[in-house]
Amino acid sequence: MRLARILIRNFRCYKDEISIDFDDMTALIGKNDAGKSTVMDALDIFLNDGAPDKHDASKGGDAKDLSITCEFSNLPDGVVLDEETETTFENEHLLNAAGNLEITKTYSGHLNTPKCTSIVAHAVHPTADNAKDLLQLKNPQLKKRAEELGVNLDGIDKKVNAQLRHSIRDHIGDLELKSIEVPLNEDNAKKTWDGIKVYIPIFALFKSDRASTDQDPEAQDPLKAAVKEAVKQKEIELNKLAQHVEEEVKRIADKTLEKIQEMDPGLASQLNPQITQKKWESLFNVSITGDEDIPINKRGSGVKRLILLNFFRAKAEQEASKHINAPVIYAIEEPETSQHPHNQRLLVSALLDLSADNQVVITTHTPMLARAIPDQNLRFIYHNEDDFREIYRGGGETNKWVFTCCGGSPFGIFQALTTGHHNETG
Q1: Regarding beta strands 25-29 and 359-363, do their DSSP bridges make them parallel or antiparallel, or are they unpaired?
Q2: Which structural domain, as residue segments, surrounds residue 186?
């Protein structure tokens, strides 16, 4: 699965909805405070199940409509959603008119602690009676629906929701397909969303302004990303294990309450078994230390950045050798920081290698990096004095226009855009 586009609305500087397309390698360029880091943070919130903070809602916008949309292409041929049997996004009518998976998360940006209030798929979906709500129905409800409609269930496994839904849709015939929003955080559709999340790309964000801690963040976060990726590869099996444990614990807890009810009904009425789960990656701690166990974060900034650089180089080699199918998005803010020009050239090579098998998103002010990246992979975030923002793809007349609009400012990357070997219009 590949990230094709993000749409952001009422989030920080993006009050009006803005859309950005992504390639295998995408470089976000723009003046300071143009909104590059905001795009990175929006992706982080969406892809890593995070939440905005109380100051993230756009000033003057609708804080209750703070939304982030991600659209995905290159979808897997088969997926496991709300049970173990394989189905497809297409068969479940979860794709938009372009054949992509498009998901919007909306957050309560008006609250002190914003939360995700809605998850929907923008899809060409059935709107006919008895067909539009099938993803929300649990197995007993699906069987009841099939019985009420007189659906022939011969030859299917009635325990498999996907097969029940398929039979019901076939029986109805005209599904009255229309582009609508399909809820994914209501009733049984929550399981569908849990299934979808398994296939959504891993997002590893390495920020340029991270604080210094005893365990160096520049070394720590890439290793954490490696842990997350390893867990992602076994996520389906781990989720099955977690579900098994939860069901067994719930069964014995319910039985315990039954026994207490026999002896002390008052006490039993006060008890309510609760089961919580931690993320699998939280089970692992990773760190890198220097000579004499000195934390790497106590070394020079160039050394710390070299660790990050060589993590990416190692990942590129690992991906190439193992041909891992798990999608990964590496997002790096100003990766060239504190690096010698020689290391910057190595960095470009490493990022391009990574983008051969995974997606890479960077922000940069460095002319050399911009010149080494093809025009079609550049995204210029235009920001004028009225806080108007628009996205322009690099190349052609855009490069000339960008430099002209900057009025000869010292923002060096524009000079690079008009003199780089990929450009024909500078």
Answers
A1: parallel
A2: 76-106+121-190
